[in-house]
Amino acid sequence: MQVTETLVEGLKHEFQISVPASDLDAKADVKLVELKDKVKLNGFRPGKVPVSHLKKVYGRSVMAETIDQTIRDTNTQIFTERGFRLATEPKITMPTEAKEVEDILSGKSDLTYTVSIEVVPAIALADFKSFTVEKPVVEVTDADVDEAIKRIADQNRPYAAKAEGAKAETGDRVTISFKGSIDGVPFDGGAGEGIQVVIGAGQFIPGFEEQLIGIAANETRTLKVSFPKNYASEKLAGQAAEFETTATAIEAPQDSVVDDEFAKTLGLESLDKLKEAARERLVAEFAGATRQKVKRMLLDRLDEAHRFEAPPSLVEEEFNLMWNSIKAEMESGGKTFADEDTTEEAAKEEYQKIADRRVRLGLVLSEIGEKNKITVTDDEVSRAVIERARQMPGREKEVWDYYRSNTNALAQLRAPIYEDKVVDFILELATVTEKKVTREDLYKDDDAEKSAA
Questions:
Q1: SS3 state at 41
Q2: Torsion (CA) 4, 9, 14, 15 in degrees, nearest 10
Q3: pTM of the model
Q4: CB neighbours of 391 closer than 8 A, spacing ≥ 6?
């Protein structure tokens, strides 16, 4: 076997490999001998079929299998000897001319092919004991609790019927019945009876609630709307529809009295218990936001400490995933790059940088985990699946079956668990200090952090 490296360009390598026909023929003969005891041919006793006859019957298929195995074994040997970690699957270029292929399969010609690869660079990990991370800490105040309870009260406020002939306004609750159609044809799921809509709550598709302003009880209107381009139903996405809508009741919101009786309507014993529950929820919410802030700081520090060329193909793949999502989101919202005060070229440049960062950080986290034997157990994944199922009451079995039968979905669930375990490992080594901040500071630039992390 002869191996010649024909290209070294950054992280890209290309090799030309030549395997003598005699080597392939010898390997194929071994397979044919193994086949003797497994096949049954008319006129021959089991195990007594001559190899020469087997070669006539199965020679081409055995040689094709031999070539495939030889390529895989040879590539593995080349990559292992050179210490390569592949960023993507190898690209193999085989002979395509019919006579050349026939000569190889019949054992008359050597096998010559090329393999192109892109490798992961060697990553020198930083000393994590030298890292310092400032952890923001927010104290839950009585004012925070009062504000949270006010939000709960607003979400559960009572409504009272408006006077006869009164018109619906923003904030009112309108009970409606409707029949939807597209081009005059009713569609599945387009009808409803006794549906309550709070005008301005954004519960229905864009434009629907606004057209209910001014409607009176027992009045019928035809509402014209368009389903968003990213609507869950592909049949309805982007379609213009009409809804013949009749209002059966108009109600105005009333002030909620926050007391023990109000708490009991929420399933709690008293107002004090409601306050305790609200405080616990805020503590958990702030802890989650703090965790994300600390994680972002740590990822920034990892980014600064590990500068290397990321495999271009992985960066391109990551960029395409983000860019396609951004384009779809903008199209569904009817936005342009000018609306975002930028240009398509500038946006592409920015997302290329984000893609490069994500790939590099992914490789660094993987290297840390591998060198420190950090793994995700099946029990941890199962707990994550159970948590997902709990978030969808009534559909628990559906969620469980989905993950049990979908390895890609399980891998996507495993990835953030692994990342968090690596982050925790680094934080144990780093110096973490606490700093009291306001709630506003904790959530400052949160959207920007999510997009870049």
A1: coil
A2: 10
A3: 0.74
A4: none
Query: How would you class 12 by CB atoms within 10 Å of its CB: exposed for 0-12, middle for 13-18, buried for 19 or more?
Result: middle
**Which is nearest to 62 in space by CA: 22, 98, 35, 37?**
35
Summarize pLDDT for 365-409 with one digit per residue, the tens: 999 999 999 999 999 999 999 998 888 888 888 888 888 888 888
Q: At what angle do helices 51-81 and 98-105 cross, to 10 degrees?
A: 110
Please list, in sequence order, all residues whose beta carbon lies within 8 angstroms of the beta carbon of residue 372, skipping any fewer than 6 positions away: 425
User: Which residues neighbour 95 within 8 Å (Cβ) at sequence distance 6 or greater?
Assistant: 101, 104, 112, 113
Q: Compute, in degrees rounded to 10, the torsion defined by CA atoms 406, 407, 412, 418.
A: 140
Find all residues with CB under 8 Å of 274, minimum gap 6, and list them: 149, 152, 262, 263, 266, 268
Total residue count of the chain as it appears in this document: 453
Distances (CA, A) of 354 to 20, 305, 323, 412: 47, 16, 11, 20
Q: Are 111 and 18 in contact (CB under 8 A)?
A: yes
DSSP letter string, 74-101: HHHHHHHHTT--BSS--EEE---SHHHH
- Side chain identity, residue 449: E
